[in-house]
Amino acid sequence: MSSVQKPNANEVVSTPLCYEMNGSCPRTLYSFGVQLAIYMACVVGMLLTVLGNLMVVIAVSHFKTLHTPTNFLLLSLALADLLLGVTVLPFSTIRSVESCWYFGDDFCKLHTFLDTVFCLTSIFHLCFISIDRHYAICNPLLYTTKFTTRVACVYIVIGWGVPMVYTFVFLYTNVLEKNLGHFLQDMPCIGQCQLLFNRLWGWLNFPLFFIPCLIMITLYVKIFIVANRQARQISNMNASTGFGLHAGASKRERKAAKTLGIAVGIYLLCWLPFTIDTMVDCLLDFITPPVLFDVLIWFAYFNSACNPLIYVFSYRWFRKAVKILLTRNIFGSGTSTVDLYQD
């Protein structure tokens, strides 16, 4: 029989920890090559997010021809994604690679606040853009009177204000702790800063995601049906008269609706896995491994880099604006009045 060697009493088998203290979270160690790969992927994602959305902000702000209610919503959406890339993603990158939070509890709460506000602001704006496109396609004659710049500004205030108030009440007041304390769960260990630190957080975020998504899906289904009907009517009228007639919403409006429909679809694709995992995790007592959680949250973050890429491939005006920006012609006189919609 082979003998089993017992460990020496003086030997201590230690698990890597975030902090050398009792109650510290265990740390996942990666090889240098894996760490470098993760850092590079995260940095590329941050650069795409920041630079792409910065171009949208500059383009809509600078060119007067783009000063429309829809584009003001796009500007506000891009600003939320830009701020996410500047203020949230750098610290999320370090947390993902090091598998620990080294910036303290107060900054963890601020980081969670900003993360939640910017992400909820994005979905609120996409929902409002869906309403805008619904009016433009389904009620083209009333659109200019119903959806004005003032209405867009009201939507923008709501889109920023509601997420800020909701997140502030949840994170910085004890209202929920007093009334719903039995739902709350403290951080399981020291050195962790995750969005999921209690069941109530997951249960509240779940409807905040799905209700706007349900509204967007419903509106875009109706938009798709109406746009196809209008296209058939135009085709039949042109075939019968022999002239190119215009009816219903313009081709530009239908193109914008299609593009923003793609943006909504990609948003759902990016955020659905994380949101479902959030709800399941709350029901199953937080069983998601930290590595899987990081993958899902970064997949959701990636959505903030997608919208500018969608605009590049879909909007001629955005490609022309980017070209002017990259060639530094934006500093020339009179560029703010250039008609980017002209072929």
Task: Please characterize this protein's 3D structure.
- The chain is mainly α and 343 residues long.
- It has one domain: Rhodopsin 7-helix transmembrane proteins (Rhopdopsin 7-helix transmembrane proteins, Up-down Bundle).
- 71% of the residues lie in helices and 0% in strands.
- The chain contains eleven helices and no strands.
- Helix 8 packs antiparallel against helix 10.
- The longest helix has 43 residues, at 199-241.
- It is globular, with a radius of gyration of 25 Å.
Strands, helices and their partners?
Blueprint: H1 32-62, H2 69-98, H3 104-138, H4 140-146, H5 149-172, H6 175-179, H7 199-241, H8 251-283, H9 290-301, H10 303-314, H11 316-326
Helix pairs in contact: 1-2, 1-10, 2-3, 2-5, 2-10, 3-4, 3-5, 3-7, 3-8, 7-8, 8-9, 8-10, 10-11
Properties at a glance:
mainly alpha; 343 residues; Rhopdopsin 7-helix transmembrane proteins; 11 helices; disordered N terminus
Short description:
It contains 11 helices and no strands. By secondary structure, the protein is mostly helical.
CATH fold-level topology: Rhopdopsin 7-helix transmembrane proteins
CATH architecture: Up-down Bundle
Report the strand count: 0
What's the main sheet like? none
- Broad structural category: mainly alpha
Which residues sit in consecutive blocks of at least 5 with pLDDT less than 50? 1-7, 9-13, 243-248
Mean pLDDT: 79
CATH class: Mainly Alpha
Number of helices: 11
Number of domains: 1
- Which word captures the global form? globular
Succession of helices and strands:
HHHHHHHHHHH
Share in β-strands? under 5%
Q: Report the end-to-end length measured between terminal Cα atoms.
A: 86 Å
Membrane topology: Multi-pass membrane protein
Main location: membrane
Family: Belongs to the G-protein coupled receptor 1 family.
Subcellular location: Cell membrane
